[in-house]
């Protein structure tokens, strides 16, 4: 299967949103109904992706027929949040359509975000993930990310901030 990686843009909004919905819907069964409702509302809002597209470097993975099947966002330093420090860059929303899982797309998206951060002279790449993201946590740990600290639970699950020093 031939996949192509490129920078994503606002033109990809509809496809990016479809990837997120497809990638996160399987967690509906693991989350309490009220937590699924709030996650699902976030996934279905165009603004969720518009905000990320405006502040980050978006990477998409597409098939030969130009179907976007994976995505990730690298937010540069200078965009602090409640969990990310201002001198950190951070990766958000690494997502792959389930039917394309197990092909290394998530790993390649994450590696390309790290490469982009290095190129931009970032010193730290952070991300956050939860106890339900078992495969993702293993991938991040294999790429050298270390747990920095636990953060308050979200959606009824435990979460951690991971960092990678470049």
Task: Note down, in words, how this protein is organized.
- With 166 residues, the chain is of the alpha+beta class.
- It has a single domain, classed as 3-Layer(aba) Sandwich (Aminopeptidase).
- It is 34% helix and 32% strand.
- The chain has five helices and seven strands, in the order βαααβββαβαββ.
- The chain has helices spanning 13-24, 33-43, 46-55, 105-119, 134-142, and strands at 3-7, 57-63, 68-75, 89-96, 124-130, 146-154, 157-165.
- It is globular and about 35 Å long.
- The amount of helix comes to 25-40%
- Our Rg estimate from Cα atoms comes to 15 Å
What top-tier CATH class fits best? Alpha Beta
Q: Could you name the CATH topology?
A: Aminopeptidase
User: What's the arrangement of strands in the largest beta sheet?
Assistant: 1-2-3-4-5-7-6
Compute the number of helices.
5
Helix/strand order: EHHHEEEHEHEE
The name of the CATH superfamily reads Gcn5-related N-acetyltransferase (GNAT)
Q: Identify low-pLDDT runs.
A: none
Which term fits the overall shape?
globular
- Strands, total number: 7
Strand composition percent: 25-35%
CATH architecture: 3-Layer(aba) Sandwich
Q: What separation lies between the terminal Cα atoms? A: 31 Å
Q: Characterize the largest beta sheet: strand count, sense, and whether it forms a barrel.
A: 7 strands, mixed
Would you tell me the overall average pLDDT? 96
- Domain count: 1
Structural class assignment: alpha+beta
